[in-house]
Amino acid sequence: MSVTVTHSTHLRGDGLSVAFGDRRVVADLGLAVAPGHRLGLIGENGAGKSTLLRLLAGAELPGAVVQGRIVRPARTGLLLQELPFRPDDRIDEVLEAAIAEVRAIEAELDDAAAALAGDASEGSPPDVAAERYARALEAAERADVWSVDRTREELLDGLGVGGLGRGRRIGELSGGQRSRFALAALLLSAPEALLLDEPTNHLDDDAATFLEDRLRAWRGPVLFASHDREFLDRVATGLLDLDPGRGAAVALARAGASARVPGGRDRALAATAGTAFGGSFTEYLAVRADERERWRHQHEVEQAELRRLRHAVADTARTVAHGRAPTDRDKFLKHFKRENVEQAVSRRVRNAEARLAELERTQVARPPAPLAFTGIPAGANALPEESGMLLHLSDVSVRGRLDVPALRVAPGTRLLVTGANGSGKSTLLAVLAGRLEADDGVVHRRRGLRVGLLEQDVRFAEPHASPRAIYERTLGERRAERVPLDGLGLFAARDLDRPVGSLSVGQQRRLALALVIAAPPHVFLLDEPTNHLSLALAGELEDALGGFPGAVVVASHDRWLRRRWAGEELSLGVRTFAV
């Protein structure tokens, strides 16, 4: 089996399937994105979003069996969550590599123009040269070759990496800087179509707004996977949900009273394998909830009807006789009506049996229980309020990265740390966790304090080990039995024993979350907790943090999360102040 690729200004996939062994990640999926449109991919971690983007871009999928047909522009760019740079690559080298194809298009235009002029001066037929020049000019206009140098500076500044020295090595940059630099390099290469995997991870407000403006002005098709709720609302012209089971819900919604959003427009559309939606993400949430309620209601109605029909088949004869004792008149007429009564009974039995058989064949399955985070387990993490400060920072600094005059973390603290890229949010969490020593100042920790840190970037040393094995080895057998991994609502049963290296980035971060909350710490530090996590889990985690018995410190760019935050805030960057 293979994938057939043809070129067009549109991005389209028909009958796309990807399987790794007996596990199908993408199954008979169809999608289409026209130039100037932006389709957002959503779905649970592991639903196949990154795999689909790789497939459409023609990237390698080792060990996969693929099939289907892809139509895409000849120059299609892909942004991955795992970056392609080597640590010793220099920034200027990466930038030049990014625009190499644009430079080649410009060179071809110059050569074509020279050939056309040469044919004209020699009196040769210009048809072939003119056609070559027209093609080169069209390609140059699409790539905007005349403004590449100006665009380079705009992109680097807009994404917050303009101040990085061009001679620096990639390995010298932070994870967030590398991600933003990769995005700048991709946009600079001016592809005709964009495939983006979590493009707003590591972007602050200014950089996210800059990217939104760029994508809304993009002339070609854009397909992106994102868990950024604000970004989805602002950028996507449509959504494609890859979660299995949605097709049945949409079919029920359309068969009955159509699922509607404010204004009365029916915007849920059945798509092959996935579910396409033509509205905003906020509208989609309401429609999805309505679809699931219709599905649940239809299932309950049909189950009630099945019970009634089964009873009717077993008891039809008694029902026909009305359950009363025969009268003298009944006895007198019995001989004459016996045959009619028997026929009526037989007819009702047959009708009930036919209806029962049809409904048993076509009944709607019970809605599958969604993977739902069960919350943070109870543990011996609560400290009495009178125990005083858990963490206390005085005049703490990490040269060139962080400067905090004072910070106190008490039991019950709810602190949101915000600031632009490079303002020191991750550095502050590393200092609080004891993973980074401050250059100056005092960090006081309460004796016996347990601090848990959910890091932005997760790497497991044994990619062939399963989530279950890593969980049991990290926590110990007794704790793993008391708080089993499959009871946290973070993993589907099918993924518990797969190699962790084969899981999506979001699934690996789910495992990192499980390792922290299974033995709840006194202080829970979360660095960009909604990065890579599914939309559903991000919301569930936010809700769970509200009832967490220990202190919580969150560093986040997530605009959705920040709007809902009800606790204290610490802004780093231009002005650092104490809480």
Automatic annotation (TrEMBL):
One of the record's GO molecular function terms: ATP binding
Domain of life: Bacteria
One Pfam family this sequence matches: ABC_tran
Domain annotation ABC transporter: ranges: 11-269, 391-574
Xref: SMART domains: AAA
Keywords: ATP-binding, Nucleotide-binding, Repeat
UniProt key word Cell division: no
Name listed for the protein in its UniProt record: ABC-F family ATP-binding cassette domain-containing protein
